[in-house]
UniProtKB/TrEMBL annotation:
The keyword Metal-binding applies. Its EC number is 2.1.1.14. GO terms for biological process: methionine biosynthetic process; methylation. This is 5-methyltetrahydropteroyltriglutamate--homocyste i ne methyltransferase. It holds the Pfam family Meth_synt_2. CDD domains: CIMS_C_terminal_like (cd03311).
Amino acid sequence: MCGAPPRPIQKKFNETSNYFPAIFPIKTGSHLSLVESPMSLLLPTTIVGSYAQPDWLIDRKRLGERFPPRVRAQELWRVAPEWLEQAQDDATLLAIRDQEAAGLDIVTDGEVRRESYSNRFATALEGVDLDNPGTALDRSGHPNPVPRVVGKIRRKHAVQVRDVQFLRAHTDRQIKITVPGPFTMAQQAQNDFYGSLEEMAMDYAVAVNAEIQDMFAAGADVVQIDEPYMQARPDAAREYGIRVLNRALEGVTGTTAVHICFGYAAVIHARPSGYSFLPELCECKACQISLETAQSRLDCSVLEKLPNKQIMLGVLDLSTNEIETPDEVAARIRRALPHVPAENLIIAPDCGFKYLPREVAFGKMKAMVDGARLVRAELGAQA
Ligand SMILES: [Zn+2]
């Protein structure tokens, strides 16, 4: 049902969409004639979503000392509100250029504009009271302030379309954008309105669906839905998780991915030996499933349970600042090869880079690209 992983196809830069400040030269002319050799189309590399934000933009120490924000956390930004968007744009360019310099095939905006992966979208919706937030248990079991749902969840307007347009305008590579999943957002809210969590999650799904359609229309090559709480709350996920996820993907024809994980290594330290919610994802409409295998040393035979999916294979351990060698990365890729055809593998970190120092994030990204190259060459030699 899903085609080959996204290929690094060159897109023409659309001059008319360049209404953003270009503090870096935009690749034009000869740079556009990139022709990838067939071999380089195997094992494309990408990040899960977030890149390390600069210290001058956000108070990373405070960010790291608290649970990921579910309501807004304006106090974390170091830049005054009137200059914040400009600063976030500039920091996004840095994130894009770092990914390009490291050699990634599919780049994201680094989620530089977000305080957490989910709250930028979740707090923009109608039906939530942010001034009088509620409480929900985080996946660690600790209470965290969350949006209090007091009315019907509805998307008032597109939330991340400008983010996609900005990214599209500033790179020639394939682009991916992430959006929080409906199941996860429902777990990160206090329900004071709906008769059931499923009903609430379904309205989140309608909002996510509209956003996904808009993000593809704005030029996204891949849209990734982040659903880490499917792993954290497997019983509820089994009950209605796939239904709401598929509602979010209804009518979507572009390449979609779902990321599930064990939580940020910086926040959730322990790793179980395997996923509690995995084979069930066969039933979801997304093409790609993003999983972590590095820190958890996942038994990759479990990947055979997702025969109809491409696997975004997590090969970077984000619990340590130690930068992997390309050989280590290559070994982690090889672990998956007996269980997933190489054509169906996309190479990625375990999770987001948000809490890593920038130089570490860059080093790991580079090692990942070099490790993928090693295995690509081996596969070419075998072919
Ligand atoms: Zn994750």
